[in-house]
Structure formats: C-alpha cells, structure tokens
Write a structure and sequence with these properties.
Layout lengths: L7 E2 L2 E2 L3 E2 L5 E3 L8 E7 L10 H6 L23 E3 L5 E3 L5 E3 L6 E2 L2 E2 L5 E7 L8 H17 L8 E3 H4 L13 H9 L1
Parallel strand pairs: 3-7, 5-11, 5-12, 6-11
Antiparallel strand pairs: 1-2, 4-8, 6-7, 9-10
Helix pairs in contact: 2-4
C-alpha cells in the first residue's frame, strides 16, 4: 500500500475497515495524544480467526459460545485498532476519542493512559510469534500515527505490560521489539 492509503483523515485510518464500538468516551479537554500502547488478544485464548474479538469490542459476544467467555460478561472494552494475523486492520474508535483498552495504567508518572494514548491490538498471544503481515501493518500504522500525532515518539511506543506491570503481560515475549523497531526506523 502507498503512504496515502495509510493516511489518517478525521481521526480515522484510511485503509482500515471501520467497525464502530460504543465502548469509548471523550478524552479530557486539551489532551494531547502522546502514547501508543501495543496489546494482544485472542478469543478464545490461543485461537485465531473468527469474529469473537470484534464481537467483544462491539458488545455482541455470544457468551455461550465458549466456557471461557463467562468471565467477559458485562465487560465493556475497546481498542482503537485491531491487526489480525493476515495484517488486516479494523478501527473501532476514532483516534480523538478515548478507547477503553488500558485499564489501571501509568506511563512516566502519568496515570490513566486511556486519556492520552492510542490502543492497538494484535491478534495473538504472549507466546506465539506474530506474523510478518502483522509487523508490516503495524509499522505502516505506527508511522501514520506518528505523523498525525507528533506526541507519539519512538520512546512513547510501549506494550500493555509497560503501563500495567504485574497486571498485564502483553504483547508478551513473542513480540519482537527489536525487529519492529528496525522496520520502523528504516
């Protein structure tokens, strides 16, 4: 895809599929977007493909579809973006809105990371390697976000585990930070 296809217009990624979540609210007034948080998700845990992640973020998850879903009853979560195993990108929440992805969190002594961050989910688990298409899409998306939101710098791209240590482990040891950064810096 060309750089234009990865552009951000009106707080939406132009090449992404748009699927609206109601799990968001307004950011605090005059809040600068200055952090990118990388997560992972799979539903059921360790299973890839299917619509369960999208259904979770849009409050349509059939809780009876898997025993593990009982823990998700009443949970309202979202992310700005999801990159699936094939590298396809879905946007759930416009970037100027506050998606509910980080939970209790802190970065550089600034709490409530949802207020000033963009949440990006990779379909995966802590211990299964991510795919090359995911890395390629992640790099393109990250470059677009950095161009549109200059507060997101190289040192302000973190994992969920970095902002919620002891509580979260994603994107996990399977995420190759070195490789991601090499691609990003090119």
């Amino acid at each position: 895809m060309s750089a234009d296809e990865w552009s951000i217009q009106q707080h939406c990624l132009s090449c992404s599929r748009q699927l609206a979540s109601s799990n968001y609210n307004d950011r605090p007034p005059a809040t600068e977007i200055k952090l990118l948080v990388i997560h992972n998700i799979s539903l059921p845990a360790g299973c890839f493909g299917g619509a369960y992640i999208e259904q979770l973020f849009t409050n349509c998850l059939p809780l009876s579809a898997d025993d593990s879903f009982a823990d998700l009853e009443g949970m309202e979560v979202s992310s700005h973006l999801l990159i699936n195993r094939q590298g396809d990108v879905t946007q759930f929440v416009p970037f100027d809105k506050r998606a509910w992805h980080a939970g209790v969190s802190c970065f550089n002594n600034c709490e409530n990371c949802n207020d000033y961050s963009i949440g990006l989910e990779l379909e995966g688990t802590d211990d299964v390697p991510y795919t090359e298409p995911q890395y390629q899409s992640l790099v393109a998306v990250t470059r677009s976000l950095m161009a549109a939101y200059p507060g997101i710098s190289f040192d302000r791209i973190v994992g969920h585990s970095d902002i919620a240590p002891g509580r979260k482990t994603d994107p996990g040891e399977a995420f190759d930070w070195r490789y991601f950064r090499e691609l990003l810096y090119r």
